[in-house]
Amino acid sequence: MTFIQLVILYFAMLAVCFGIDLIWLGLMNSRFYKVKLAGLMSEKVNWLPGILFYALFVFGLIVLVVLPAVDSQSWVRALLWGGLFGMVAYSTYDLTNLTTIKNWPVIVTVIDIIWGTLFSATASVIGYFIANALT
Question: Which domain holds residue 129?
Fold first, then answer.
């Protein structure tokens, strides 16, 4: 892929990831997270760390999952490795919270890890097809 194609892929995947996660958070924030994390959640979103998360997460998905899947011409590889990437990333966050934050709910950790796995697998497959369309 050319540099321009990589930039297009990056911003396309950034939009995909942000869109998918925005839907999830829109559906689950008041139903689940505000209930389970009452007292821990901020009233206002701190956008800078969130933006940095998406920027790094998408970079990792592209470099470690999408481009190798494109090289092997396998959307199944994107699905499986994307899911693994998400499981590891979300487990790192949630298991650390479970370790260090008093009364961190185990159910939040379980749901987040499942979500991170599905989210990353889905985004990786979409990224795979976007990358193929760009080449």
Answer: 3-134
> What confidence tens digit (pLDDT) does each residue in 17-38 have?
999 998 998 888 888 998 999 8
Rounded-to-integer distance, Cα 18 and Cα 98, Å:
25
- For 114-118, the CB contacts below 8 A with 24+ separation are 115/24, 115/90, 116/86, 116/87, 116/89, 116/90, 116/91, 117/83, 117/84, 117/86, 117/87, 117/90, 118/83, 118/86
Cβ atoms of 16 and 53 within 8 Å: the answer is no
CA–CA distance, 129 with 60 (Å, rounded to integer): 17
Find the length of the chain.
Answer: 135
Q: Under a CB-based contact definition with an 8 Å cutoff, are residues 77 and 69 in contact?
A: yes
Q: How far is CA 81 from CA 52, 57, 74, in A?
A: 22, 14, 11
Number of domains within the chain: 1
Question: Would you give the distance in Å from CA 12 to the centre of its chain?
Answer: 14
What is the tens place of the pLDDT at every residue in 90-134?
A: 999 999 999 999 999 999 999 999 999 999 999 999 999 999 999
